[in-house]
């Protein structure tokens, strides 16, 4: 039901915007073309920022550094009620969207789609954005190099999100803990 | 950002040496450059489309209408831009697009917001308070329905994929509010080095 409804959201918004334009006697085609001119420039301007952040993160992933962190943190996490299997997701979710989704599918397949860890991971993935990607794309598009406290804000919100996801998962799905 | 970039790259090289994963570190560096360019190229079409649509929304007064609707909220959070209806309206549109899970629309509109905020920025290479707040809210990723996650759960055959909607909504709302509060606190106490 929800999936069916969401198909209509986008066309509805576009239709309402166009309709308002026509009612208000805006030359919709001319304004569209005029506004759309910048699309290429904006997209291309983020390349240097994207290359920097994606190269850094991909190298980090490929080196296996995340697994090393996992070994160190494993014991502490178990005491806090956080399954070790979820750790890679906790680390990558602020760094890379596609990697996080890959890890999530992996967990769901290996540990079972209805397992407690899968549910906790689902909450964690569904409640977050990839902070590093968002910052580099958005700031990159206007040439901002000094992020000030934006990164710290994003990271603090991410950590809060992780902690909350652990807590809420225990709260909602206590029965599925093995 | 300087430290993070340095740390990511140097730790990777170091771990690559010790772990014997240097080959894949180098490979991933090369493919990542390619991926970055592909991402930005794949944005061009949808970016162009939404900038066009948003221009119509602007000229027809649609954006200004949305801005007026949420003015009580934006006045509190974005106190620096209270007289800029265009930026306010676009911020509202961008957050709504994110909330509805319209990623294709959210990024172009968000980038447009950044351009508008940049016009009022006296130091063009440094983020303003408003930008930090806007991006803080963005990175918290407020979303009503986590469509992608549900799609994966459906794909692997979960019995009741929609049971994660409510818990996810609780978490995302709270971390969204956290981002706002944290950004407000930083705005007051952040000192430039």
Architecture overview:
The complex is a heterodimer of chains A (178) and B (193). Chain A starts with a helix and ends in a 6-residue tail after the last helix. Chain A has 10 helices and no strands. The mean pLDDT of chain A is 85. Chain A has 2 domains: 1-37, no CATH class; 42-176, no CATH class. With 178 residues, chain A is mostly helical. Chain A has helices spanning 2-23, 28-36, 39-45, 47-63, 65-79, 87-92, 97-111, 116-126, 131-141, 150-172. Chain A is globular, with a radius of gyration of 21 Å. Chain B is mainly alpha-helical and 193 residues long. Chain B has a domain at 67-193. In chain B, 77% of the residues lie in helices and 0% in strands. Chain B has 9 helices and no strands. Chain B has helices at residues 2-19, 22-59, 62-69, 71-77, 85-99, 103-119, 129-139, 147-155, 165-189. In chain B, α2 (22-59) crosses α6 (103-119), α5 packs antiparallel against α6 (103-119) and α7 (129-139) packs antiparallel against α9 (165-189). Chain B is globular and about 60 Å long. Chain B starts with a helix and ends with a helix. The model of chain B has no long low-confidence stretch (mean pLDDT 85). Classes of the chains: A mainly alpha (178), B mainly alpha (193). Chains A and B meet through α1, α2, α3, α4 and α7 of A and α1, α2, α6, α7 and α8 of B.
Q: How many domains comprise the coordinates of chain A?
A: 2
| Approximate helicity band of chain B | over 70%
Helix vs. strand class of chain A? mainly alpha
Ends distance of chain A: 32 Å
Q: What is the overall number of helices of chain B?
A: 9
Task: Provide key terms for this protein.
heterodimer; A: 178 residues; mainly alpha; 10 helices; globular; B: 193 residues; 0% strand
